[in-house]
Design goal:
2 copies of one chain form a homodimer.
Chain A: H1 5-13, H2 15-26, H3 38-54, E1 58-62, E2 66-69, E3 72-75, E4 79-84, E5 92-98, E6 118-120, E7 125-127, H4 135-151, E8 158-164, H5 174-183, E9 195-198, E10 216-221, E11 224-226, E12 229-232, E13 238-239, H6 240-243, H7 250-259, H8 282-290, H9 295-302, H10 312-320, E14 338-339, E15 342-345, E16 349-351, E17 354-355, H11 361-374, E18 379-383, H12 388-397, E19 400-403, E20 419-421, H13 422-442
Parallel strand pairs in A: 5-8, 5-9, 9-19, 10-18
Antiparallel strand pairs in A: 1-4, 2-3, 4-8, 6-7, 7-20, 10-17, 11-16, 12-15, 13-14
Helix pairs in contact in A: 1-4, 1-13, 2-4, 4-13, 5-12, 11-13
The structure holds zinc ion (4 copies).
Keywords (chains A, B): Hydrolase, Metal-binding, Protease
GO molecular function (chains A, B): metal ion binding; peptidase activity
Protein name (chains A, B): Cys-Gly metallodipeptidase dug1
Chain lengths: 444, 444
Amino acid sequence: MSSPLEFLRFIDENADRFIQRLGQAVAIPSISGDGTHRQDVFKMGSWLEDQLKSLGVETKQVDLGKHTMDDQELPLPPAILGRIGHDPKKTTILVYGHYDVQPASKSDGWDTEPFELVVDSETGRLIGRGSTDDKGPIMGWLNVLEAHKALGLSLPVNMRFCFEGMEESGSEGLDDLITSEAAKGKKGWFDGVDCVCIVVNLSQSDNYWLNTRTPCLTYGLRGIKYFKVTVSGPARDLHSGAFGRMVHEPMTDLVLLMSKLVAPDGTILIPGVDDMVPGPSSEETAIYDALDYSVQDVVDAVGAPITLSEDKTTLIMGRMRFPSLSLHGIEGGVRETQHEEQARFGESARRKPWIADYKHWNYEAAKKATEAVYKKSPDLTREGGSIPVTLTFAESLGVNVLLLPMGRGDDGAHSTNEKLDRSNFIEGSKLLGTYLYAVAAATE
Amino acid sequence: MSSPLEFLRFIDENADRFIQRLGQAVAIPSISGDGTHRQDVFKMGSWLEDQLKSLGVETKQVDLGKHTMDDQELPLPPAILGRIGHDPKKTTILVYGHYDVQPASKSDGWDTEPFELVVDSETGRLIGRGSTDDKGPIMGWLNVLEAHKALGLSLPVNMRFCFEGMEESGSEGLDDLITSEAAKGKKGWFDGVDCVCIVVNLSQSDNYWLNTRTPCLTYGLRGIKYFKVTVSGPARDLHSGAFGRMVHEPMTDLVLLMSKLVAPDGTILIPGVDDMVPGPSSEETAIYDALDYSVQDVVDAVGAPITLSEDKTTLIMGRMRFPSLSLHGIEGGVRETQHEEQARFGESARRKPWIADYKHWNYEAAKKATEAVYKKSPDLTREGGSIPVTLTFAESLGVNVLLLPMGRGDDGAHSTNEKLDRSNFIEGSKLLGTYLYAVAAATE
Ligand SMILES: [Zn+2]
Ligand SMILES: [Zn+2]
Ligand SMILES: [Zn+2]
Ligand SMILES: [Zn+2]
């Protein structure tokens, strides 16, 4: 079950060098959402590929074509595929990560230069854009590979890698790549994959530890569906001075309509929606009861006593399993004295929910590895948002997918002063290696 | 009652030259809301002052100080004051106008260059920024002055002028100028003013003819009051994936609150507000009944059958006398999956209502002048919006104020392809001159 002691010791002894490598990665401003940084995303992809190669991984850059962003046609950053180990007796694990980052500049309010990794020796924080999302987790895998190469240890599993450079900008081209690569079977790079491990700290779902104390494994995502409602009225924008109380105003109707969708206590007023999700089993309730989480944690996280329930289990189920309806993006009637032709809210898009079998050996292995490294059982969580690639892997490969967060709930991905704690990086690297051994043991 | 025939003939005979002068004014892009054009606003002020001087008007440029716009400190364009005629036996009329304009560029969708006056000989339209708002009306007064100078006629009244260059940007500095100048009494430029005539086509109140057929006099403005409502919740922006259905969302509460303010049929739901405005007298109702206006006119103007009433008089009272509540500027929860710290709508500001005595000789004179020039009785209207300077003149000078629109309801001030019809410009110039004679006759 446990990894070799020499592996754990190697990680500890090389911690400073590993942090330096994270610094090299952070120094490349691979911002996928800013066309002027597109060459940096390519540079980061090549840097990552070189690292993998130097650690014995066979790699391939996959051209994903072009796309249009801000009226400019740009080449998409490549997917970096990799494989190491072809032992048919070993289990094969596919690992996903993304090497692009969110925009950042000091003028946004960063205390330090975002693309220079700062090691705060007092707090142990490694501060920089991409430290937790998602360069730190990717470096975790490099650390594991390097340790085994340096020690002359063979990996306990076969590994496959899939890294993309467009995650922060909609993962363009990735779904097609995964499904076509999966469809290739024995000829594809995902041949023989037995399970998937995603070590991403995706801000969209805030897929981190629930807090700063207890590691977690995530086995479900609520999914998202956007609806857009448009109320039309006059054929052009009108002046409320000239037409107010003469004609029907779209914004008045839209606001009334929206007020009928969700109650202030979170109840969804659209008939039948709340009924579509059956109540939890006692086994599921027991999972929520066991979480290292309190009502006060939520109050602390949001900075105000505005929780919808005083009961911890009810509260966490609001996030993890019940449907939630939020009102967003109301447009129209922008100018003070003008009411517009149309009033509208929301955007139309859909991401399906995903739930994994948390009793699968993939989860059992991650649980045992967590207990070995952190001396603590992980929280078993679901998240309120969506990580589309999770579902794509699960559906196209037909295998169990594990979300194994490396960071803490206060890392601030997508925010200023993004950080990864040194202990999360170093112990997290140990966790990844130990997880490989636990998978090997569980599937022997 | 009527003006000298030679005056009317002079206007007709010099029409093309007057249109050329309007073209010179339009060619100066005196956009007050764009700091890069501030020198053009000054240039326009000096051009106007030179014109007045050449027509025998004594003038003064009043420095209104500085202001800050878009983080830049800029000198305010001067007010141009003028006076001509000091005959104590004559009535003194104060005229207001503004020489600044709204921004315009061909890329906004103009069919022609906005700062080159285009004369469409087929439709008779004079197309260009400022043609109707407010350079055309100002040129109307210059035409009257020029005719009298050229013909050697003395004006039937004493005239005072107050032109500003910041109307499109909040009239900064003007209220103080008017009140301080009024307070100077005999030593001020407004000494002896008996009435005010404002020939502005202010988009904010759409103070034009009600349609394209019948001239109007405007004797009331409904006024405006803005309220801003802010609903606060969490201490920072939250992710709806992570906190949806865990905490109270400001936008949910705000929408519910807003839905209680006004009904889709225009009824104001806040107790007592609709009751604050007493119903119309039969005399007032008769004014609305007499207006050259139909339900179909409203449908045509807004481009859709969305009127709140099928009864013409009820419909027009919604605009002209009843309170109206519009919902605007809803902010918060902008990003698809994010709900913000605060949700808020509206802006806080106030402009008081204004109603003039339409039986005053000032209005009687304008009515008779309109009948003489247009062979038609003018509509007697109130408007739904606000023209702040109207109230400032009325209160600081204590005299009757007349709004005498020159343009038609379809002129498109503040829009692309702003125009003034040639006939409105030329007949409008005759109307202004005839109005002066009518005032003189009425106050003899
Ligand atoms: Zn990420
Ligand atoms: Zn991210
Ligand atoms: Zn104007
Ligand atoms: Zn205007």
